[in-house]
Amino acid sequence: MTITQLQYVLAVAEHRNFTLAAEKSFVTQPTLSMQVQKLEDELGLQIFDRGKKPIAITEAGRKIVDQARNIVQEAARIRDIVDQEKGFVGGTYTLGVIPTVMPTLLPMFLKTFTQKYPKVRLVIKEVSTERMIEDLREGHLDAGIAATPLGIESLVERPLYYEPFVAYVPHGHRLEKSGKIGREELDLEDVLLLEDGHCFRDGVINLCQAIPRTEDMPFQLESGSFETLVNLVDEGLGMTLLPYLHTMGLDEKRQRMLRYFQDPPPAREVSLIYHKKELKYQITEALKEVIAAVVRGAIAFQDVQIVSPKRQMA
Amino acid sequence: MTITQLQYVLAVAEHRNFTLAAEKSFVTQPTLSMQVQKLEDELGLQIFDRGKKPIAITEAGRKIVDQARNIVQEAARIRDIVDQEKGFVGGTYTLGVIPTVMPTLLPMFLKTFTQKYPKVRLVIKEVSTERMIEDLREGHLDAGIAATPLGIESLVERPLYYEPFVAYVPHGHRLEKSGKIGREELDLEDVLLLEDGHCFRDGVINLCQAIPRTEDMPFQLESGSFETLVNLVDEGLGMTLLPYLHTMGLDEKRQRMLRYFQDPPPAREVSLIYHKKELKYQITEALKEVIAAVVRGAIAFQDVQIVSPKRQMA
DNA sequence: GATTCATATAAATTTAATCTATTTTGTCGA
DNA sequence: TCGACAAAATAGATTAAATTTATATGAATC
Questions:
Q1: Which of A5, A77, A81, A277 is the best substitution to test chain B (most B C-beta atoms within 10 A)?
Q2: Segment B121-158, tens digit of pLDDT
Q3: Considering only CB atoms, which chain A residues are within 8 Å of B78?
Q4: Which residues on adjacent β-strands are paired with residue A91?
């Protein structure tokens, strides 16, 4: 049994296709096929069921694949240890960021980080929270930035900052004359939401559910960006909620349409999350430091009410 | 990097000698030397300092060796998974047992186990608790039976039974006329102890320390076996404490010299302990089941006061 | 039933691991 | 400081294993 064989198995498990898996592993298809067969022979059981299309993983195979992933990850940590010993912070580092954090946070730290750690090639991907969790597990991402708490056993959450929710209210809206808004004043039917799949959407729904109201709304306008949402509000189609950092980019006219919540304001907790195995943890630490430093000036809310990013049925 | 190379590194780390390590790995010395060198080249750092005798492990090497052990153990679990899938319970299984449990517990379960699982070759070693912990960590033992709780992070403790302490008191001793003994009646100066290194000795000391008394005794007779201790008591040199199972082998005359403790009696917790990684866990489970079943009839104390096997300064 | 896509097999080639034999290095005692 | 010894490194030959190209087989699709 070799680490290479295990890597081949992982590739097949992922792509469900020997040819593609071979390509991704930078070897020819027979090479990969034979090595996988060899391992199966050695273990005396089938990992893959080639009689199906796409290729299926056998029941036993599932467990072996999981353990193989484990071993390959642990093996990767050796390089990690070496890098740390040498004080080398470099290589490719893949970071996932949720869509509602991406446009505001990224510009804040990207330049600083790349200047401070020129040897690290940062690859940044915009992904949903669910996708991020999956990709962190599979090792396709080194870390992610998402709203927490998620409470995923295999992941570590390191809070970066707390970002309050701010209401954006059109002229003539019942909340326009309010000073500070109480969360009980919110009415979900009246709030424009992001489309499904955004955790910020779920956060808002959780927040509104604080007032006893059923979730089945008659009709709802939804969009994928706050930009659109703000425009819809301007058209008088309802109000919306924005994360604090997004409100900083609004022009002065729109700033006046913002309404803040009573203390402690509802907020989302934005964290750096990564696998417990802490691959490339020296880069993760560096990243966390840079972001924390840059964020410290812009957004320093302490006394907030954290809203869960996960849809809650209560 | 291959698993084989990591195994070679572990062998050298253990034996501090390339030649011996090669022998234990069933390869020639140049083979092992070259593979270790190759790995060092690949990683770009020295794992071993050959300029010393015996060979030293470098600072970085220490961390790499630890991780290598981790990887090799995880790799071994693949076989484990396969065995479980196939319902195969077999192979060599090395069990450590502390000296004060060995002679009484072993005869109780050994025959049953080997009959029920003929494909398992049980290798049983008598070791101290400290040695057991070390050997479990290094993977030289698959499991151990010892007094608990130990509170070792990397080990799992699965209690098997609770074994009360019983006093063995000579004729004319102040406790001879007692009915049930209270622990405050004990006086450490008066109690014959096992020699240093036995956790039962520490348990007894802990028990006696319950009464406020200094630990520095003027003179103390000590022995490595209860057999000797009992004989010394018969000679009138003091009393002693025995674990319950040991009292069952005493002849009738000696049985009459036993004095039990008041409820709940002080007792030691005897557990099956093994590494969190749970290598060969199907055998471990089988072993636990067999022992639990056999012990259930002989020793079923529930309401006991567990005495720590670790020396406590309090 | 021909076509296509995917995996398996065969044979040749390259690469890597291991062995035997020998040299170098380091340690220890005279 | 000099052998003498033990242990590790190196060299060259051998064996084993991984990988490649080329080709065959097999299952799904129309």
A1: A81
A2: 999 999 999 999 999 998 899 999 999 899 898 999 99
A3: 1, 43, 64, 67-68, 71
A4: A120
Which of the residues A41, A43, A57, A58 would you substitute to probe the B interface, choosing the one with the greatest number of B C-beta atoms within 10 Å? A43
The answer to whether the predicted template modeling score (pTM) of the entire model surpasses 0.85 is no
Paired with A242 in beta bridges are A166
CATH architecture classification, B3-84:
Orthogonal Bundle (1.10)
- The pLDDT, as a whole number, for residue B225 is 86
- pLDDT mean over B108-124: 92
Answer whether residue B213 shows pLDDT above 60.
Answer: no
- Contact between the CB of A249 and strand D at under 7 Å: no
CATH 3.40.190.10 fits A163-259, yes or no: yes
Burial class (CB in 10 A: 0-12, 13-18, 19+), A223: middle
Alpha carbon distance A81, B70 (integer Å): 13
Query: Does the CB of B193 have a partner CB in chain A at under 8 Å?
Result: no
Mean pLDDT of all residues in A194-211? 78
Task: Decide if A78 and B85 are in contact by the 8 Å CB cutoff.
Answer: no
How confident is residue B219, by pLDDT bands cut at 50, 70 and 90? Answer: low
Helix ranges (DSSP H) in chain A: 3-15, 18-24, 29-43, 59-86, 102-116, 129-138, 199-208, 226-234, 244-247, 252-255, 281-298
In CATH, what class is A89-162+268-313?
A: alpha beta
Q: Report DSSP state, residue B51.
A: T
Residues of chain A with CATH 3.40.190.10: 89-162+268-313, 163-259
State residue B211's pLDDT score.
43
- Window from A126-135, B168-177, B269-278 with minimum mean pLDDT: B168-177
Element (H, E) at B28: none
